[in-house]
Amino acid sequence: MKRVYVNEEWCLGCHLCEYYCAFAGSGEKDMARALREIKISPRIRVEEHNGISFAVNCRHCREPLCVKSCITGALTITDNAVISIDGERCVECCTCILSCPFGAISRTPNGGGAIQKCELCVKTESGIPACVQGCPNGAIVFEDAVGRTVV
Predict the structure, then answer these.
(1) Which run of H or of E encompasses 143?
(2) CATH of the domain at 129
(3) How far apart are CA 143 and CA 5, in angstroms?
């Protein structure tokens, strides 16, 4: 199963991954028009602590606490091991937000659904997450979990 991984040593803290993520979720064809004069709402976010920049994103855990805590079954694990959201079933209880140990789930701003999280851009043509494609320094990669600690 491929997942998004971030190499903090290479992350510049430029936040371009956030813009590419927000653009991918917009459904538009022109990034400048899609994101002009709006506050973006990406499913990945860059944080900085003690001079180290890193991205916070869904890790698509093997035994996800968010899925176990979802009282309506709005969060499920798909056949390709991606944790996906069914916005129709979500009742905005936010137990998934509280249960995620990585802080990777957030409320959707401006309505349009209760929660949002990375779903690995599975609906895109390329099958490669937009944050990975847009990272100018190659700090974000999309690869198998071989040799990595997976939760």
Answers:
(1) strand 140-144
(2) 3.30.70
(3) 8
Do 110 and 87 belong to one domain? yes
Give whichever of 17-26, 30-39, 49-58, 62-71 has the largest mean pLDDT: 62-71
Tell me what pLDDT residue 28 has.
87
Of 115, 75, 73, 112, residue with least CA distance to 92: 115
pLDDT tens digits, residue range 113-136?
689 999 999 877 788 999 999 999
CATH code where residue 90 lies: 3.30.70.20
Q: How many domains does the chain have?
A: 2
Examine the domain organization and report whether 53 and 65 are in the same domain: no
CA distance 45 to 8: 13
Instruction: Using alpha carbons, select from 37, 23, 36, 40 the residue that is nearest to residue 134.
Output: 23
Separation of alpha carbons 23 and 40, rounded Å: 8
Which residues span the domain enclosing 91? 60-117
Six-digit token pair at 55? 């991205």
Global pTM reads 0.85
